[in-house]
Amino acid sequence: MTTTDAGATTDIGLLAHLYRRAGFGATREQLEELSHQSYDDTVEFLLNPTPEVDLPPDVLARYFGGESPNSYVSIWIYRMLNSRCQLQEKMALFWHHVFATGLIKNEHVLSSSNQIDMFRRNGMSNLKDILLELSRDPAMLFWLDNNENHNGEPNENYGRELLELFSMGVGNYSELDIKEASRAFTGWTFGQPPPLYPHGYYPAQFKFDADDHDFGEKTFLGQTGNLDGSDIVDIIVKQPASAKFITRHLYNFFVADEPQVPTWNDLEPLDPQLIDEMSSALLDSGGEMKAALRVMFLSDSFKAARFKKVKSPLEFVVGVLKMVGEFTELRPGLEDYATASDAMGQRILDPPTVEGWHTGKEWIDGGNLTERVNFAAEQIGDGDSPGISALITRMIDGGAMSSPEALVDSGLDVMGQLEVDDSTRDALVKFAGDSEGDPEPSRAVRILRLIAAAPEFQFA
Fold this sequence. Notes:
Strand content: under 5%
Mean pLDDT: 93
Number of helices: 23
Structural class: mainly alpha
Shape: globular
Helix content: 40-55%
Distance between the termini: 20 Å
Radius of gyration: 24 Å
């Protein structure tokens, strides 16, 4: 525990937990700086980032810019590593998972990257604004064929997924509601951008084609009128089912692993009380995402949920890179990590289906787990990186070498106050005891590598 000058007490372990979930981790130095303000104030800072603490897009483009998916993912990873707007980046990843849109079909990198930028701008705003921007997004319009949704010949793909996977969940609407929603989105399309060659990518722009829109009367979720897409979104956001569905997604992403989405109509949430409180906050605020997020992060359930979630591959990669501290400044080389999560089962900008990725323990089946362990061990290496070198110094100066138990406890502490079960700790202590007599830095780095290979290190 650390006591602030103002008398508030902030737990370093709780802050580490918050930043693993609301961001991508934090260094021990960052956590100690944060401990001088209250937990509630830290949550408010994450919820309300100011523009001056963000990273300049033009500078990032100069270092990592290009027209390949890897170039954009490199920029995004740098943001995840270094932006103080951690929750803003985490919410962009959240919506990328919920509103899964893939390059495998659209093959237009700029549209995919612009969609992520849109999630970054709007991810913590009003749910109505988020769904409206999604409905106008060229990558989504093409991904779910709304550009083929014509007056008199409706295409129901977007209308169906908007209700089933993006807002309400199965069982809360009818087939007629899907048809009427699809009619309301006729004419919502995009202008075809210029060809890729010879000048590169140009952005696609949303276009409303009034001549292709169905202006007839429609009935959606019991409301009748000359409804268009914005009316459909407005009705959706006011539904209790939508609030419960979105907040359950938030719980699964930020608090603890739920079963997969297709089972939600049959299985109750793991924490019905917290879902009810978050849903009420979302509804009572008229759809403000920050209201639901605030309730979640301040809840006892969230605070008690340490190491209850399997890190996604990208969370794992970025967390390890943040720990080793190699990319705190702009320099070449980050592009090498743009595909690091692919082999672990998560290809950024290219989710496998409209359902997104399956989460939880499916992230760590045999092959994926091996990739994760090897990646962490390789990045920790011999301890020469700035971040690992700082951890080793802290361990040695703090008396870690006084006993095998102290070495293990110190290693677990500097790696985010990691909690392990007795069998894992016993194995670590045995290893630490067997290495007594070896040089202190070597012992420290080897224990860090072994901790990174422990099952518990896969959890946030």
